[in-house]
Write the structure tokens for this entry.
Amino acid sequence: MKYLYFPGCSLSSTGRAYGESILAVFRALGLSFAEIDDWNCCGATSYMSVDERKAVALASRNLALAEEQGGAGPDGEVQVIAPCAACYLVLNKAQHLMDESPDLARTIKGALAQAQLSYTGRVKVRHPLDVFVNDVGLKALGEKARRPLKGMKVACYYGCQIVRPYATFDDQHNPTTMEQILKALGAEVVDWPLKTRCCGGTLTGTIEDVGLRLNYILLREAKRRKADLIATACPLCQFNLECNQDKISDQNKENVAIPVAYFTQLMGLAMGIPDRELGLQRSFVPVRVAAA
Amino acid sequence: MSTSETKSNGSARVGVYVCHCGKNIAGKVDVKAVAEFAKGLPNVVLSREYKFMCSDPGQELIQKDIKEHQLNRIVVASCSPLMHEVTFRRATAAGGLNPFYFQMANIREHVSWVTFDEGMATKKAKALMGGAVRRVVLHEALEKQRVAVHPDVMVVGGGISGIHAALTLADAGKKVYLVEREPTIGGHMAMFDKTFPTLDCAACILTPKMSLVRTHKNITLWTYSEVAKVDGFVGNFKVQVRRKPRFVSEELCVGCNLCVEACAFKEPKFPDEFNLGLSKRKPVYMSFPQATPSVVQIDPETCLHFRTGKCKQPCKSACERGAIDFEQKEKIVEVEVGSIILATGFKVFDAKRLVQYGYGKYPNVYTSLEVERVVNASGPTAGEVVLKDGKKPKSVGIIHCVGSRDERNNKYCSRVCCMYSLKLAHLVKERTGAEIYNFYIDMRTPGKGYEEFYDKLLEERVHFIRGRAAEVTDWTMTREEEGKLVIRAEDTLVGEVRRIPVDMVILSVGLEARADADEVRRMFNISCSHEGWFLERHPKLAPVSTFTDGIFLAGACQGPKDIPDCVAQAGAAASESMALADRGHVELEPNTAFITDELCCGCKTCIPMCPYSAISFNAEKKHAEVNAALCKGCGTCVAACPSGAAQQHLFTDQQIYDEIEGLMSYV
């Protein structure tokens, strides 16, 4: 099966390490993939709140490109991997909205036709967690672990967008796919009930007090549960949790320093992929200390 | 029967009646025009319109006209046949005609209620009238078949509903077979401590009825038994019951429990089902002290003898009456009954499905049914409300609507949870003095003395927080939350998210249809609503009947119900069974299928098609035969028959073609 890869903007900016590590892991697993040519903004959370129709139009251009470029499987489905939680949600949401509203679908399809594109609904938007567990399989992953993550205690963090509102491949309240993957690669996971709680999203930039408090709760609880690091699957979650630790520690007079890595970086470590190919040098709080 | 009957078109004399139904029909359909139109139809002798045809004067009008105008066919254009076909057939018969010389045109449900344009409505009413007049001319005189009703009754399920139905019937002199799947009767009610709103002890009001069942001369009690097969039809069911082996003779055992004491396992070791796994039992055990029958059973899954064959069988030696029988085998018994009451009850919602409430993860999260056992004097803690570590809780949260009123699980309200939550709040507070927090969406307390009970709880200073709880968690934010379970909920009255730390959480789980409700439904040939509850024939006017005659419903198998409602419904079901038995016979609708022998080629196509198993193959004559008593007149065999041998009374091909032609020619 061939996958189409939709990096979105984050994976080439703040979330570069996510993009680098995911591609390195794909290669190591021998997955066949190609980046969607000429992709554009996914429509993103903020655009979706301002003008839903235009956001759907942006998202559906990507879906239409995928249909055009994707080698569909025998079932006619085109598999698109969207690692960024926001991209994953927005692409999914665009499909849902068009399914639910024939009027909207007509408008969007009309707009796509102007650009000589069409969307028929054959795209299946996949999250890499889903692909690793359900397509690759935990057994195959385990076999790739050349340097198992022995002794590493991980708090697995999903954030809100991967499982809400569309819990397509994991439980909405208690997702476990990330735990399954990291356990298969030798890590220990800590029981951390905050794994789908809000990271503050863009509030860290707008209403800082509220945003930082939300991050404080997550960081503190991860440390209290003796996690060596937090694994994330979302560029914004990673950014929020990692980049404000000094400020949060100062404000609360409590040391909340803890490495925050993409789960794909940890997968890469276990597979023996060199640090630089996993973007590990980009971390502010060194991941290697925890991994050592 | 009248002498003016006729079978040939030439001498048919049709009387037509168009009903106004007040404004229901006349407000949309020009009834005068329809009646006028009917006058011009072939064979119509007279045509009238009248305000309410179903009224006594309306019916008398038909009877009078039959005599005065020598009518021999009647058409009434009014409501749905489901409403008044019976009424007008009776009026036709009272006028001296065979009641099946009648046809109804539905110009209310099919026309006036569903058509906007008056012209269109009138036109459609005329077309339906045209079809009805054409068809009624071909109607034949039919006789209803009478079948005797067996006076005995079977009640399936020995909870409070089944018990009450069985006792009511038995007291009226009917012989009752009460079949219960578990080793004892009593059902869910036997697990409860107190009952709302009176707080009388569940056992005190239930166990006398249980022992009455055991001793009643008219009741045959089969516990640890299941219905295996149901054949036959109303008045004449043949039921096979599978009696599972309990490895103890019910006739010999007196429930002294000496065998339990003697068991090779010195200590109870296996999860006790009756206490929902909160305590342990031995392989030989009695469910609870008042189990009925008062007979022990041996669980072969855990018994050393069955598992290894190496047990010295101390239980057997201990029994002075020789009641232990390791050789006991499953038995099938067959009985004949006239009617069956299903009282198979419910199951509670599986709290594990809502992972956010931590059931199965945090030991101090309980379901409400577990707490019923905890507060019960014969329960795992002898009625002491203590946590898994033996400590008394200082604060308790009760989360309502777990699995109810929820788009993602069950949309319906389970009806009993608000009240039992109040009851548990009262009992837990009484025994521990703990602070109690109820998290509710709406308090639903309609019922005699129910709202007053809610008021009482408010006075007892139990806390009520309006909002569905979001989660039960163990991550803490303040020192007072340390070591506690935290319930997070939006308090919709205050408009804030609240965190309430508690020692114990009770999940008020909703009621669901039994897991095997669909298999049971098939076996008894009844229907389920989409939530899985057994479907009553009519939600208001036939609440204990089903679409299969002679099968009645009692209790929570039909939908969530509290004990008073279960008992009331059980009484109603019992009286339906009694009415059937006392009448002694049933009349069957004659719109059944029949096989024209000369046309039947014996291909057997119809046999597997019949949903009621009403068709059999006569090997001697080599053709199919319809048992009219079983046939429901669905017409499936008629449509399937390749040679046209299968036909149906009141729906012969000619009648249907004529009706269609009649309808189409006036459109």
Notes: The longest helix of chain B spans residues 563-583. Residues 9-144 of chain B form a domain with the Rossmann fold fold (CATH 3.40.50). Residues 1-9 of chain B have pLDDT under 50 and may be disordered. Chain B touches chain A at residues 354-356, 471, 473-475, 477 (CB under 8 Å).
